[in-house]
Structure prediction request, 1330 residues.
Amino acid sequence: MIEDNDYGRRRVVIETVSPQVDGGRFAIKRVAGEKVAVRARIFADGHDVLGAMVKFRAAGEAVWQESPLQLLGNDWWQGEFRVPPLGRCQYTIAAWIDPFATWQRDLRKRLDAGQDVTVELQIGADLVRARLEGVSAEDRQQVTPLLDALADASDPARQTAAAVSEELGQWMFQHAERRFAVELDRPLDVIVDRPQARFSTWYEMFPRSCAAEPGRHGTLKDCEARLPYVAEMGFDVLYLPPIHPVGRSYRKGKNNAVMPAPEDVGCPWAIGAEEGGHKAVHPNLGTLEDFRRLVARAAEYGIEIALDIAFQCSPDHPYLRQHPEWFRRRPDGTIQYAENPPKKYEDIYPFNFECDDWKNLWQELKSIFIFWAEQGVRIFRVDNPHTKAFAFWEWLITEVKATYPDALFLAEAFTRPAVMYRLAKLGFTQSYTYFTWRNTKAELTEYFTELTRTPVREFFRANLWPNTPDILNEYLQFGGRAAFMARYVLAATLGANCGIYGPPFELCVAQPLAPGSEEYLNSEKYEIRHWPLEAPESLRGFIARVNRIRRENPALQADDGLAFHPVDNPQLICYSKQTEDHANVIVTAVNLDPHHTQWGWVELPLDELGIDAEHPYQAHDLLGDGRYIWNGPRNYVELDPGVCPAQVFRMRRRVRSESQFEYFL
Amino acid sequence: MIEDNDYGRRRVVIETVSPQVDGGRFAIKRVAGEKVAVRARIFADGHDVLGAMVKFRAAGEAVWQESPLQLLGNDWWQGEFRVPPLGRCQYTIAAWIDPFATWQRDLRKRLDAGQDVTVELQIGADLVRARLEGVSAEDRQQVTPLLDALADASDPARQTAAAVSEELGQWMFQHAERRFAVELDRPLDVIVDRPQARFSTWYEMFPRSCAAEPGRHGTLKDCEARLPYVAEMGFDVLYLPPIHPVGRSYRKGKNNAVMPAPEDVGCPWAIGAEEGGHKAVHPNLGTLEDFRRLVARAAEYGIEIALDIAFQCSPDHPYLRQHPEWFRRRPDGTIQYAENPPKKYEDIYPFNFECDDWKNLWQELKSIFIFWAEQGVRIFRVDNPHTKAFAFWEWLITEVKATYPDALFLAEAFTRPAVMYRLAKLGFTQSYTYFTWRNTKAELTEYFTELTRTPVREFFRANLWPNTPDILNEYLQFGGRAAFMARYVLAATLGANCGIYGPPFELCVAQPLAPGSEEYLNSEKYEIRHWPLEAPESLRGFIARVNRIRRENPALQADDGLAFHPVDNPQLICYSKQTEDHANVIVTAVNLDPHHTQWGWVELPLDELGIDAEHPYQAHDLLGDGRYIWNGPRNYVELDPGVCPAQVFRMRRRVRSESQFEYFL
Prediction:
């Protein structure tokens, strides 16, 4: 340290920089056009004035852009920059002692105290002269009159005016001596995704259940026919469970029976058969060309197809013959199937990520993503990533994004929090959450406060699902139609990313495999179902309305602005989201009791919502289309689950038109 | 990454390691014999059992010692190690997948489920065999019978008994394959000080005011005569303001007057004159030999002499002639004096830490510490370290400790929190605090919770002073004798390190220079004072009693165990400290109102204090010697400031002697 000739003269310290993840080990996440608000504690010994900049550049750029940081007080500095449209970018902070700003500050005090500043003015002129070297002719021209005035002792008034001028201060800041500036030890990374990373509405559906008539194996063409139905409900991502050939050995029967009937179709996650593996389409579903056409047709409806990437093999997968070295071998010569002792999953073979040939395994797995990206897929729902090596995911996501920076990855990891957060840090764009099991007001408040009000927000993007083919929560089993409505409103307004597994969701299918189980009875995981889409109890119209509200209200398209508000009834939950400029303020109230009408007084922080507490304002329920005139922070809500268990209010302020007509905007 | 052949196979992650300071940039602090309780989140993909160790070694040792970490749950692991007696040490964590422990866990489940485990037992035997290579003959001998039993299919009962045995598990843990183990990116540092770093009681006194008779300049010999007085009060550090020659140019007069009288003695912090600088003793105080004798005599009383190191020069300091390059020069040829515009301190010249010759400046300043260390000084109170370069202190403290690892440094920085904390991180052993300005219950509770219950505790050791020559707080100015008593009890029981500036403190000197000022009237900083040590109102007996309580109760010799407890009176504050084993539990109650008797109900968390809530216990007030039988968590206290504004209870549990006699221990 002391060997470095400037070491002892770098007097500034930069501490407690945010946002960052694990000391810069991982990137923070943003989408195109978002800002990064940078904060740090910056200080030096003594009382000198400091200068500080946030520096940022897109990956591959050599030159940094800069934006000044402002001192907030107590050594906290703050600034911001806008991220580039897509890909990676970096940022760092530079800070330095600013002798000229120090001199100007002190000079003003000396002048106020009426002191003789003759020598001080000479010092100031010297500071300016020292910065002339290496400056462009234009810049030099700009400062010359100021320096001349500063150095001209014959006109003291002009001299001091130049000395304390903002213009000279600005010029000196822009040309500051930064030889002893400090920067962060290493730049911090930002992953910039396209806006869909932050705002997306998913619909999961089994293609083989999409046949128009019962009893037939659905096809990708049937999926095409289903697109208008999905689009009408307002979904923009259509996620298909694995579409690959399904294994025959140890195939599971209906309701996960160990002995299948001959006509049983097996589980789509038992991937691979004679017909092919992870890069093949199940012959009963159609061809690769059918798939590409589905992708194209979906795009016409504003829908992206998301594929399920499940890295595991059925016993019939070609990999088992081609690459036995990628699997664990037992002393009896057999290959090790999946287990959770004492349970055995003999229809599934996991890859051995500790195998000697791990590099080739990684490359092959990557080629699966690339293959489907080449077919037009940019959204991947990754099955059980927490049972594959962490290092693999970090490498894989970086590699795929190097070619397809618009690729999005949803981590399907329902496991311990540290593991779920780690996967998000490693690069997964979105993550499944514990939402499904958070049903009370206290649970929801605590969990979503953690996700949106702590550093977790910098790397973990929640995607909220009230149900999945694996999870039919007790709340839905017993809550009836109102429970499905409430849970969808919660998912769609708490989370900018959300999704449902349909048609069971919109049809309010609620029967579990067995009491106490979260498995569906007659689950589509093991058999083909035919769904009565036109059933009168279907929530398709309700869901369409909720999704339209999401599309029309930017407040619901991000999770940053989420705030919970008190209600004097534990069955009622109330929260808001808003845009930074308060232009769009959405307040949602949900009755968590699916059986009884609940009412209570909601208390809103009007200041924080940008609402004038002195005048009435309108709470416009975008769900029921009721319009209520509210006054002050405390207002009454009453929700009958038999009608609708939620209200989604757009807050409208009173404005007066030129013709003095008053209305709410 | 992927180029590394093992990279993809290192599957374990270590996160959120504590204790550490700023991601390992700075060392944590401990004293001899203390433990470091290490916590981290450690996990891998999948469901394998992990093994984890904390590794530690003293600086300079090549070999790590190890101690296993235990899984607490939710991926949190915990362990501990004891630090070496003095100097630096390092620690890190190693963690790995443990296939044998995984196998044992799964085997037990398989056996419970009555499954055929023939192949599993072969796998287990293979795992053991794989660990035999490179193992000592003795270790091999130990495992051979177990392996033989495990491999012997002819006796299945013996086979499974060996398979699931703890003994085999232990052996395999000790000989675990750690090829793919992960460790922290870099080891974390611990600075280990002698116990005085954590527990010390300081007395500050001006040597020149120590003459037995008024009107004479006190000497170091007079200080010797004062030692019994200081020792009787129970102090173990005697801190002397600068003892060097005092400058004559621009000398300050009494009460900081700009024009001194001829007989004025100046300010000891205006260091340097013809007679010498920072390595000289003021001729009026005596000689270097006198100083060395004072150090030796003090040691006989169990007192260490602490010196004030103030890096600044009077205009007469030899450095100004010898090393003008270490100071800032003005365009008029003069050297820049200290300023806080518009205020000028023309009697003081600061060093220029940005000068070209900074390396020689650093070396010279270091030589001052070394010089006084050679005279036997090991405690340095550093004046205004926050106005010297941070990098200098980190280097200096490391350098001095390389030769004198028992050296202690107290940072006298009364400035913004980030700066004070930074100095502590850089290596200062102890720090002055905001204690002086924290007088209400809320202020004290918040501040000491921050210091002792947050990561601040790992690097910042508070030293609490109710007064200093610069600070006579308003509370003391208006509170009378009870205020001095209360503030000393607070300092001495909230902080294991504390000190007073005497004799003004024990004599309850309370008159400020002016209303609203915290300066003393007729401050010793500018004149010699003669103090009536035998005054009847002196608190010397009270202070002696408090300090004896500190010496006799280990709970008060550390700050870790501090906890605040509710009292239903805002003027009463109550808190406890205890040893880890609950053997010594001290509960302090202080009346913060120096004018009125206050009473209230204290509520103690008996469980946390190791007190049996079912039986009465004794609260023994070590200050007043009252003994109270308390029952349950809520008990009454009443404090009359006219008598004593505080009680310091030692909690005593009821025990029964062999002869069935009950008493409180």
